[in-house]
Write a structure and sequence with these properties.
The chain is an all-alpha fold and about 160 residues long. The protein has helices spanning about 10-30, 35-40, 40-60, 65-70, 75-80, 85-115, 115-135, 135-145, 155-160.
Length: about 160
């Protein structure tokens, strides 16, 4: 993602820090448990990606916790250790993806504002392509919410 060469932190460290801020905020609101927060960030992302894949593929009404567990490589019981309830699992994953994406885009705004238009557009497109390759399942969820009117997620995913 966009990274100012003058910064000391690597983009991966910045992304991990942004992810952890999202997890902490969700824990403070009771959306995820301390057990989820203590997972390795890669394991957290695997769980969130599994939830998002399931919602994007089947829609929120047809989500099955068993399929999410299989996708994430965890037991069903572990999922309930990470999230207070089934609906909370879906809401937490959607909030995390939306919050993470919004925070990422907001962090790029000052850098993008300094670029000449042509260079800014080139950067915008190349970063968008990189993002979509890294977050394919999230993109599927956003597309489903935007174009198929997934109930409950059009406002939380498309509007921000």
């Amino acid at each position: 993602m966009i990274h100012d060469a003058g910064d000391d932190a690597s983009p991966d460290l910045e992304e991990t820090a942004a992810w952890q801020r999202q997890v902490l905020a969700l824990e403070a609101r009771g959306r995820v448990t301390r057990t989820f927060r203590r997972l390795d960030p890669d394991r957290q992302r695997a769980v969130v990606d599994a939830v998002i894949d399931e919602i994007a593929e089947h829609g929120p009404a047809a989500v099955q916790v068993k399929r999410i567990a299989e996708r994430a490589g965890v037991s069903v019981g572990s999922l309930y250790q990470y999230f207070p309830r089934r609906e909370g699992m879906l809401d937490a994953a959607v909030e995390m993806t939306t919050g993470f994406l919004t925070a990422s885009l907001d962090s790029y705004a000052p850098f993008m504002a300094e670029l000449p238009l042509r260079e800014g557009l080139r950067c915008y497109l190349s970063e968008g392509i990189e993002w979509s390759a890294s977050y394919t399942s999230w993109l599927g969820l956003f597309a489903r919410a935007a174009y198929s009117g997934t109930p409950g997620y059009a406002d939380t995913l498309v509007r921000p």
